[in-house]
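Q: What residues go here?
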């Protein structure tokens, strides 16, 4: 009976790392928040390696058809989407107009790296 009881801190061998961190810090971390062990995990896991590709042309993709290659990594929208509403046919919100004007001065969002990895 006494071995079935948890320790005074509430951490048992079956406790998940997220629950243990919540018991130690007094709160549960958010789902996307890095854990206490994240720096150690990043140090131990091997770096991602992708084969760099030379893009010779932009292949067109029609709506409803598959991509011309298997999906690998983050998509940076490198394909020409054929079809859909014509340019300028959709209503532009005032917020969209402000973003469009700001993007003419400086690129909004993170830079697109030559390795296709998002920062």
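A:
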């Amino acid at each position: 009976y006494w071995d079935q009881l948890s320790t005074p801190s509430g951490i048992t061998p079956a406790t998940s790392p997220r629950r243990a961190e919540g018991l130690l810090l007094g709160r549960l971390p958010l789902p996307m928040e890095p854990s206490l062990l994240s720096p150690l995990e990043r140090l131990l896991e091997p770096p991602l390696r992708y084969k760099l590709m030379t893009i010779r042309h932009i292949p067109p993709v029609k709506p409803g058809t598959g991509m011309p290659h298997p999906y690998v990594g983050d998509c940076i929208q490198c394909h020409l989407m054929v079809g859909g509403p014509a340019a300028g046919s959709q209503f532009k919100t005032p917020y969209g107009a402000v973003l469009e004007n700001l993007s003419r001065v400086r690129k909004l969002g993170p830079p697109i790296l030559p390795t296709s990895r998002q920062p």
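A: Context that may help when evaluating the design: DSSP finds three helices and two strands in the chain. The first strand starts at residue 60 and ends at 61.
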